[in-house]
Amino acid sequence: MRVGLIPQSFLERISLSSNVGPTPILLAVWGLGACRTMMAGVRLGIFDALSRDKGGDRSAEELARQLGYDPAGTETLLDALVGFGHLSRRDGRYQNGKVAEKWFTANSKSSLHNMVLFLYHVWDFMNSLEEAVRGGKSHVRDLHDPERPPEFWEHYLRGLAEFARLQGWEMVRRVPLPKNAKSLLDVGGGHGMFSVAFCRYHEGLAADVLDFPPAAAVGRSVVAEERMDHRVRFIEGDLRHTDFGQDRDAILLFILVHHFSPEEVQRILARAFAALRPGGTIAIFEPEHRGGSDDVTQSGGMMELMFFLTSRARAYREETLRGWLEKAKFDRIRTTRLLTAPMTVLLTARRPEHA
Ligand SMILES: C[S@@+](CC[C@H](N)C(=O)[O-])C[C@H]1O[C@@H](n2cnc3c(N)ncnc32)[C@H](O)[C@@H]1O
């Protein structure tokens, strides 16, 4: 998948292909608008107010009165959201499009409401880009700095929980667990929703989620809301120094290893191997960096940039992760890609029965 300009007429097609029109600026300005109007629509409660369960369509004036906003400002934002395809307008009344109703309203089962709110923090990271390039990583604050405010952890982990809710059903079918698995460790599991999905799928399984205290605080509420707190528990600590336990049937390292240097990742894998029982499963789930030496994809370049701005390490290629799993003596290494998680890669492997 990639982002780009889509011409809507013959003239626009020629303008785009001949490099005559100022297309790079159009892409940048519209990209900026697409992002910020969507964020404002969520933060200002526009999509929620127009949701089907709240009565649906409204005029700009009705909506402005209901939410206590400026009528001209409300109408301008609504029209921009129509332009970006999130709302439709008929006879001066606005309603959510299918995409907005599904992804942006807080009550939808597939809501990405918190992930959109997390984009405000991503916006701040992006503001430090020039400084980070000039001065290097010492000018960048670590994403997981425990001193970040509770609101940050709430949007970050509830946002990731929204992804995990979408991906859980597929994930549990793609990660093979030993028969009668009883104990899973979810390293850096944050919100706990992947552990919830595995416990629901495997009767008799209980999970420990290991994460920093502010992450565990959010995770405990998420798991309690799912009524799974009797099977999913939290261990607070830094995963680099906290015991992984023993005789684990499965260990998950999801959206995690890019935060660590190659040496640290290899130490984590060796400790995971020792904590698994023979026949136990390890699963690594990561944003994929597919670019080759001469080619960087949009998603690969963007991920590298985000990780540079927010963590100590880089996105790793699948071959690199595979190599480290082999070196740590895991066998049955498999690569899978998920329908529900474009641009990611899932590697599963096993601690051999006689190791
Ligand atoms: C991107 S989130 C992934 C959450 C979850 N595994 C998922 O796939 O959605 C990374 C998580 O790792 C945790 N983490 C990062 N470094 C850690 C460390 N040194 N010790 C404990 N947890 C850590 C963060 O607090 C965060 O919850």
Automatic annotation (TrEMBL):
<dbReference type="Pfam" id="PF00891">
    <property type="entry name" value="Methyltransf_2"/>
</dbReference>
<dbReference type="InterPro" id="IPR036390">
    <property type="entry name" value="WH_DNA-bd_sf"/>
</dbReference>
<keyword id="KW-0489">Methyltransferase</keyword>
<dbReference type="InterPro" id="IPR016461">
    <property type="entry name" value="COMT-like"/>
</dbReference>
<dbReference type="GO" id="GO:0008168">
    <property type="term" value="F:methyltransferase activity"/>
</dbReference>
<keyword id="KW-0949">S-adenosyl-L-methionine</keyword>
<keyword id="KW-0808">Transferase</keyword>
<dbReference type="InterPro" id="IPR036388">
    <property type="entry name" value="WH-like_DNA-bd_sf"/>
</dbReference>
<protein>
    <submittedName>
        <fullName>Methyltransferase domain-containing protein</fullName>
    </submittedName>
</protein>
<dbReference type="Pfam" id="PF08100">
    <property type="entry name" value="Dimerisation"/>
</dbReference>
<dbReference type="InterPro" id="IPR001077">
    <property type="entry name" value="COMT_C"/>
</dbReference>
<dbReference type="InterPro" id="IPR029063">
    <property type="entry name" value="SAM-dependent_MTases_sf"/>
</dbReference>
<dbReference type="GO" id="GO:0032259">
    <property type="term" value="P:methylation"/>
</dbReference>
<dbReference type="InterPro" id="IPR012967">
    <property type="entry name" value="COMT_dimerisation"/>
</dbReference>
<feature type="domain" description="O-methyltransferase C-terminal">
    <location>
        <begin position="148"/>
        <end position="312"/>
    </location>
</feature>
<feature type="domain" description="O-methyltransferase dimerisation">
    <location>
        <begin position="34"/>
        <end position="103"/>
    </location>
</feature>
